[in-house]
Design a protein that fits this description.
CATH architecture: Distorted Sandwich
Strand order of the largest sheet: 2-3-11-7-6-5-9
Strand content: 35-45%
Oligomer: single chain
Distance between the termini: 41 Å
Order of helices and strands: EEHEEEEEEEEHEEE
Largest sheet: 7 strands, antiparallel
Radius of gyration: 17 Å
CATH superfamily: Glucose Permease (Domain IIA)
Number of helices: 2
Number of strands: 13
CATH topology: Glucose Permease (Domain IIA)
Length: about 150
């Protein structure tokens, strides 16, 4: 009788990744920086932003918020690490134009606000505000699939 009350239920992992920023979805190869376009850090995609709010693309945990707040790394529920790098060469701004709403080690939910970037104030100070989203630890047999259903790792 009591066994059924305490049965473990398996929590399903949602394989879909939401876009962490509103804007135009771009192939990672189109990022005007070879570190990203040549997939040196990993496969992914990029976004030409149309708003200032960066949200979590997955349920997971914050691994690192860079001290300059221009980038954040997360780990999803199955261990995929995701780097969201807001703009190019934005590290040189030393935090100017960025606000962080999370901290290292914090658990986050898909859609939760992570950062804000004042693109209007920084766009003329950096080469590009294109925002790469990179999966830094994909296995050899894993790849990013982007189609009309969404973005997921297969």
């Amino acid at each position: 009788m009591f066994k059924s009350l305490f049965k473990k239920t398996k929590v399903e992992h949602d394989p879909f990744i939401i876009m962490p920023l509103e804007g135009e979805l771009l192939p990672i190869e189109n990022v005007p920086d070879p570190v990203f376009s040549q997939k040196i850090m990993g496969d992914g995609f990029a976004i030409q932003p149309v708003n200032n709010t960066i949200i979590s693309p997955v349920d997971g945990e914050i691994i690192s918020v860079f001290p300059t707040k221009h980038a954040v790394t997360l780990k999803d529920q199955v261990g995929h690490e995701i780097l969201i790098h807001v703009g190019l060469e934005t590290v040189n701004l030393k935090g100017e134009g960025f606000i962080s709403f999370v901290k290292d080690g914090q658990k986050v939910k898909k859609g939760q606000k992570l950062l804000e970037a004042d693109f209007a104030s920084i766009k003329n100070k950096v080469p590009s505000i294109v925002t790469p989203v990179v999966f830094t630890n994909l296995k050899e047999n894993e790849k990013i699939l982007i189609n009309e259903q969404g973005i997921k790792i297969v």
